[in-house]
Fold each of these.
Amino acid sequence: MEFRGDANQRIARISAHLTPQMEAKNSVIGRENCRAKGGNPGFKVAILGAAGGIGQSLSLLMKMNPLVSLLHLYDVVNAPGVTADVSHMDTGAVVRGFLGAKQLEDALTGMDLVIIPAGIPRKPGMTRDDLFKINAGIVKTLCEGVAKCCPNAIVNLISNPVNSTVPIAAEVFKKAGTYDPKKLLGVTTLDVARANTFVAEVLGLDPREVDVPVVGGHAGVTILPLLSQVKPPSSFTPQEIEYLTNRIQNGGTEVVEAKAGAGSATLSMAYAAAKFADACLRGLRGDANVVECSFVASQVTELAFFATKVRLGRTGAEEVYQLGPLNEYERIGLEKAKDELAGSIQKGVEFIRK
Ligand SMILES: NC(=O)C1=CN([C@@H]2O[C@H](COP(=O)(O)OP(=O)(O)OC[C@H]3O[C@@H](n4cnc5c(N)ncnc54)[C@H](O)[C@@H]3O)[C@@H](O)[C@H]2O)C=CC1
Ligand SMILES: O=C([O-])CC(=O)C(=O)O
């Protein structure tokens, strides 16, 4: 009988949390009184924009990451549904959902890593810069929340245009007095994933064996694959270089056009974001030699931000690597990339300083 009593109490507790009344009473969407806390030692991760195309798949992938103990899913719509769904996966991370601006602070408090895929995606005919008008304000608001509630968190910024949203985030953090350049990382991992895939196709290799550094930024000509530095060392014909560079630079547009109005890359992007977040968490844990490309504050060129390989450690991007030797084709590409990047960075900075 004692056992039955305990079990009944447990069931009553759980059922109570399933009622809409209780959900409404709770400031967060979760199961606060349940015993099952996962109990994993690990990191606390928030996804802002978790109900979107990228956000949903990314939530699934982060729920599967053994380094995550607590996963906060925030969005202005549909966060409860995504949270309920993902929370039934029998992996270690405990999942809590947060809906709307009033719950942003709860979503962010105590987080080690904040991943931001919030904002509108492109439709055919648009550039990433066409998203600035709407996404700049979204990123500003969310980063103000980060500065207030988890100023020491690592931020992985996905929302486009990354070439401008990263400078916007930096300015927000500077204004709040919390800016640590090592902790603000623009996510360019999808460019590397595409480059590895397309180069592997040309070379007839497994993409997992290929490593292509992609530097610069995350839009059109600012995406600069360094094919002269591909591992394993490989040579390409001028036609192959032209084909690969164009395909990598226009990979996002290829998906936007194929989706024909239904958005941009979400599945490959969630994969890339999960890979990059995992690298950040391994760095936070103290693993050695965690190296990824990312758009960060940089002294590699005269620009304030630039994507190169960075070494991720306990405090974020602890080392920003130089470009290494470039061939003539890449030197010309670098000048074009810098010209466009300069304007995009300036636009982001001015959005906050105006
Ligand atoms: N860095 C990269 O390599 C890539 C970046 N992106 C960018 O990621 C962003 C998201 O793309 P999708 O997931 O496809 O778009 P989506 O429209 O499917 O999802 C965006 C989500 O953000 C949410 N949202 C809007 N305002 C918000 C706010 N203030 N706070 C929290 N959430 C908010 C929406 O409710 C929606 O659930 C776009 O800007 C897109 O261009 C997309 C692919 C690659
Ligand atoms: O192209 C877009 O709009 C989305 C994006 O950044 C990408 O897929 O690389």
Amino acid sequence: MFHHITVLHEEAVDGLNIKPGGIYVDCTLGGAGHSSLIASRLTEGARLISIDQDDTALAAARERLAPYMDHVTLVKSNFRRIKQILHDLHITQVDGVLFDLGVSSPQLDEAERGFSYNAEAALDMRMDQQQELTAYTIVNEWEESEIASIIFKYGEEKFARRIAREICLERARKPIETTEELVELIKRGIPAPARRTGGHPAKRTFQAIRIAVNDELNAFKEALEDSIEMLAPGGRTSVITFHSLEDRICKQTYQEYSKGCICPPGLPQCACGQKPTLKILTRKPIIPTDVEQEENRRARSAKLRVAEKLAK
Ligand SMILES: C[S@@+](CC[C@H](N)C(=O)[O-])C[C@H]1O[C@@H](n2cnc3c(N)ncnc32)[C@H](O)[C@@H]1O
């Protein structure tokens, strides 16, 4: 049973301002919470393309979306291929693109996927089960400096170098096979007083390794830029992020595309001719209500940002 509680369910779909006959893309199908709401607002002639790289999500979503399958297309792929996916479907412009980033609850709950620091499993963490790179490779084969760098950059973990050192000392003795072994090494790398504050000591390092395994930040940046390019005038992007690194990419990309003239100050008139591509509709991100945060822990760090494509 695929059980994922959709975060900012109505808010993210309302953000798309659905036109009943439009063409929409849900880049992160997951348990199809957002996709089924979008599909329920579409009428004949409309189209929803829902993408996920996880086979389990696609199988479950197929059932949930059964009543709408006449206007829904499911695609197993990385969303960083959005342009190619749309091109293959002969679609040149879309009216809205939704991202609800990160992992789904089933991915976290199925211990054998290796995403959780609370369950023993092989070091995996792949969203796409056919991908080659796994957490095992990163932990056992990457250079110590590379491991330290991703833990610092993607986990914002200040003891990154010490943790990387512990990992490399251990793997010189024998390969590190499981999430549990990794958790122990992370704990060893964090001084005792720091271990007692700020949640589970392995949280930041697990997040970092997961981001690296799935190349999450680069995939999102590329896909967001390509989505903006594929939007029809008046089309919208609606993006839910769950940590500051993703949110920063969204905010900065929206800002870049909403900039007009970039001439140096003091010129008597504009020489660059640059026009803004996007209008940002959420100056401050929308966050889940207190009730939603109370009911769903995952919702606590969620932020929604919406932007609209301007006419040229
Ligand atoms: C938070 S869940 C989405 C939940 C969904 N909105 C719902 O309401 O049920 C994120 C999903 O996006 C997928 N995903 C994350 N990054 C992806 C990528 N680069 N390409 C394709 N799918 C991705 C994950 O496999 C996961 O199923």
Amino acid sequence: MRLKIDQLSKTFNQTQAVKDVSFTLEAGNCFALLGPNGAGKTTTLRMLSGLLKPTSGTIDFEGFTGHDIREKIGYLPQYPSFYGWMSGKEFLVYVGQLAALSKQESIKRADSLLELVGITKAKHRRISKYSGGMKQRLGIAQAMIHQPSLIMLDEPVSSLDPIGRREVLNLMEALKEKTTILFSTHILSDAEEISDGLILMHEGRVLEQGLLTELHEKYQSQKIELSFKAFSENQLAVLSALPGIREVTPSRTGLTCFINDPILARQSILAKTIEENWQLNQFSLAKMTLEEMFMEVIGQ
Ligand SMILES: Nc1ncnc2c1ncn2[C@@H]1O[C@H](COP(=O)(O)OP(=O)(O)OP(=O)(O)O)[C@@H](O)[C@H]1O
């Protein structure tokens, strides 16, 4: 599986919802499309799923450009609707047949997917009696009925209570082994917990993207945690003015220095500490949290 999108844009009347978005997804990973409300996540996913025609740009799925790729991908919309009077199994058999599988094949796939998403015991129960988490898990099974190599899930956990969220996140964690997942979320901790890669969107544009390990590495050297035996406001002011340092804020254990230049910042902090004879207890390059990275990237 390889999905490459290049300079994808979508304009609705006057609103440019998605602007020149480019990224590539490789097989076997879970990617989070992360961004606040209105960032353009749903619009991007709807274009990728073939539900919306891009204003410009290309979608290349395994070398196919400009083709209908719906049979190769699975999609769970942000607000899925089910026939509440159907049982979970009836629903999956129905969507299997809609996806052009034979009835026999649909029944076989439905049973194995119900097992996979943990709904076997409730498969004959009406969907209207399912919990929110069960409905989302059924929605994920629906997206996988035709064995796509990529599934796209639009805000799969946002509307769920903590139990439902946990069920769906655990399922996604397990599914990562079987299929490539692209899911949208505005919840940073969900992206951090289960994704391998991140595409950060804001106001229609991609501001940052990469594997989480690469992003942590890139932003890790931009923060130094310090703790001193005694702390004074004067220390904060002195450190803030040093070369290579952008901002210093108090932290739970001491001070956090956000830096522009790691080498310069390290030298100037250590030189100042010796000069002032401060008692340094801790000096460490720290990983930025995803939230700090997000704020940094969107410039706030
Ligand atoms: N059909 C439409 N007609 C007009 N404007 C639209 C349409 N769909 C989306 N938009 C606008 O495009 C922008 C991006 O919306 P989109 O739903 O893609 O964002 P999102 O990141 O998915 O946010 P949310 O989490 O709130 O769904 C918003 O300003 C939205 O109002």
Amino acid sequence: MEGDHSASSFTSAVSLDKLGVSSIPQRYVLPPSQRPSPHVPMISTTLPIIDLSTLWDQSVISRTIDEIGIACKEIGCFQVINHEIDQSVMDEALEVATEFFNLPNDEKMRLFSQDVHKPVRYGTSLNQARDEVYCWRDFIKHYSYPISDWIHMWPSNPSNYREKMGKYVKAVQVLQNQLLEIIFESLGLNRSYLHEEINGGSQTLAVNCYPACPQPGLTLGIHPHSDYGSITVLLQTRSGLEIKDKNNNWVPVPFVEGALVVQLGDQMEVMSNGQYKSVIHRATVNGDDKRFSIVSLHSFAMDRKMGPALELVNDQHPKSYKEFCFREFLDFISGNDITKGRFLDTLKMKKL
Ligand SMILES: O=C(O)CCC(=O)C(=O)O
Ligand SMILES: [Fe+2]
């Protein structure tokens, strides 16, 4: 049944790809206005590639921090290279991700859930507006920090999933701390700003598999959204990610071997009192091969209310967002009310 999302009737995008369907089921077909652009868009925005090894060189460090600040202000997204996560750690995480999605359906379905509060869940996704349009994507999502609290719940098949994915998760945790320090510094805040909220924060890993799609022009792998947290670190195997720039154009994020994509989330926009923007993004799919992404979503403490940094609120920059905590976000997205729009929009304070 088309609109039935119960486990027994669930057909994942990966299963449809394995079946070799030549057209996609109606529930994946988007209205024309929401489909990906049929032609390569004019690139009006260039996404910076930041070499993090420059942070060790005192003579260039301030230039790098400025570059990151500009990217956060203008786009809310940049790529990083020389980030000190070994290529082998990234490759092995992608290998176990691939093996997981290759498992028989029944095996994966043991982790199936549509409950966003579940710490580990496998599934497909409906669009952000919670209507009946699916995305051409399968995913496994799991809480990942503190790792010792959650790792025993992660997939046990393939047998080295926990070990390999665990290595990546720990490495990306270190990188996220480093990136947050630089981002705070670029805002003129202390490097150790929000230290406690970061230590008491959360990390969720979304491991996404976008199978080859027979009609990539009609659907998307993930619908437009911004991430809710502080920052997101994304590892991809080929291009497909697109971000919305200031002029409302969709800009493809090029695949750069060894690079990681950093995206700002809603918590960062709120914390910076709107100086930095959370980036709206989506994933397109393609006709020739699978694409994987491993997306590490970081957020400040779950139950602590977060608002704009006092240091960034003044007469010229009045407070423009309400405080919120991560739990409110979860409640928001598990509700079905599509009239509320994006979570961040509900936090914006109207100018008097
Ligand atoms: O796979 C991608 O490129 C985007 C995934 C994403 O936005 C997410 O998981 O939040
Ligand atoms: Fe995202």
